[in-house]
Design brief:
Pathway: Cofactor biosynthesis; tetrahydrofolate biosynthesis; 7,8-dihydrofolate from 2-amino-4-hydroxy-6-hydroxymethyl-7,8-dihydropteridine diphosphate and 4-aminobenzoate: step 1/2. Keywords: Folate biosynthesis, Magnesium, Metal-binding, Transferase. Its cofactor is Mg(2+). It catalyses: (7,8-dihydropterin-6-yl)methyl diphosphate + 4-aminobenzoate = 7,8-dihydropteroate + diphosphate. The chain has 266 residues and is of the alpha/beta class. It has one domain (2-258): Alpha-Beta Barrel (TIM Barrel), CATH 3.20.20.20. It has nine helices and eight strands. The protein has helices at 15-32, 54-68, 82-90, 107-112, 140-157, 177-185, 207-213, 221-233, 244-261, and strands at residues 2-5, 38-41, 75-78, 95-98, 117-121, 165-168, 199-201, 236-239. A six-stranded parallel sheet has the order 1-2-3-4-5-6, covered by helices on one side. β2, α2 (54-68) and β3 (75-78) form a beta-alpha-beta unit. α1 (15-32) crosses α2 (54-68), α2 (54-68) packs parallel to α3 and α8 packs parallel to α9 (244-261). The longest helix is centred in the first third of the chain and has 18 residues, at 15-32. It starts with a strand and ends in a 5-residue tail after the last helix. The mean pLDDT is 94. The chain binds ligand 7PJ. The site of ligand 7PJ has 13 residues, from β5.
């Protein structure tokens, strides 16, 4: 899954049409690099980021969904606002990726109809304040697993088919470095007992990689690729990244190794 930010700071400030052409070109590049899903986001959810008004998020995201449909690649929209979910699905989005795990009032109703994919992410607290005080868990892996169990039940009670869901531990969203690496090391254990949902992970350029390597955001590509391999080895089905080409190369090597491991006679 290639990340396509459509926030003003991610584009040359040349107005909506330039932004649209820019986004289309970036999406095409990610497809050429091997991305199989494009995740479009109109609001930065970085720790401390200021929320974007609804009208502004719609104006950023919906024209990009419409413009990218011609690429015939699954389109995901990263939003927690029910009105954006509805508009994105109506415009042809294939998936809604919600950092709030469909907990905002109206979110379940917004996605109930249709058969779009839904990514249920774990977050402790909210983006403005989640990293302001040290996040506390009993057992972070068990707590995330319990959260997933509760959200899956809520979604299914709303009449949403389980086949539409994937789960994401939400790296960096109300977690310390130790929490993030525990959730990577024990990724498969975040799955509620007896279930087998696809797992999505997003560690690309995040602070956990900086904590492990001492590197700044722009220098975390290799660290992110290593994290993606660790996640794939532990059962991740979808890896959400900025740096598609090196990640796809790594996934090809991981897959070739996995395939060879199944062959007993050599
Ligand atoms: C995530 C996300 C993530 C999912 C962001 C960033 C912050 N969606 N949206 N998982 N992170 N599903 O990319 O640094 O980890 S925005």
């Amino acid at each position: 899954m290639g990340i396509l930010n459509v926030t003003p700071d991610s584009f040359s400030d040349g107005g909506r049409f330039l932004a649209r052409d820019d986004a289309l070109r970036r999406a095409e590049d990610m497809l050429a690099d091997g991305a199989e899903i494009i995740d479009i986001g109109g609001e930065s959810t970085r720790p401390g980021a200021v929320p974007v008004p609804l009208d502004e998020e719609l104006a950023r995201v919906i024209p990009i969904v419409e413009a990218l449909r011609q690429l015939n690649v699954p389109l995901s929209v990263d939003t927690y606002k029910p009105a954006v979910m509805r508009a994105a699905l109506a415009a042809g989005a294939d998936m809604i990726n919600d950092i709030w795990g469909f907990r905002q009032p109206g979110a379940l109703d917004a996605v109930r109809e249709g058969n779009g994919g839904l990514c249920v992410m774990h977050m402790l607290g909210e983006p403005q304040t989640m990293q302001a005080v040290e996040p506390v868990y009993g057992d972070v892996v068990a707590d995330v697993r319990a959260f997933f169990g509760e959200r899956v039940a809520a979604l299914m009670n709303a009449g949403i088919a389980r086949e539409r869901l994937c789960l994401d531990p939400g790296y960096g969203f109300g977690k310390t470095e130790a929490h993030n690496f525990a959730l990577l090391a024990h990724l498969a254990d975040t799955m509620p007992a007896g279930t087998n949902f696809p797992l999505l992970v997003g560690m690309s350029r995040k602070s956990m990689l900086g904590a492990a390597t001492g590197r700044k955001k722009a220098e975390r590509v290799a660290a992110g690729v290593a994290a993606a391999v660790c996640a794939a080895e532990r059962g991740a089905a979808i890896v959400r990244v900025h740096d598609v080409a090196p990640t796809v190369d790594a996934m090809k090597v991981w897959k070739a190794t996995k395939d060879a491991a199944r062959v007993r006679h050599h």
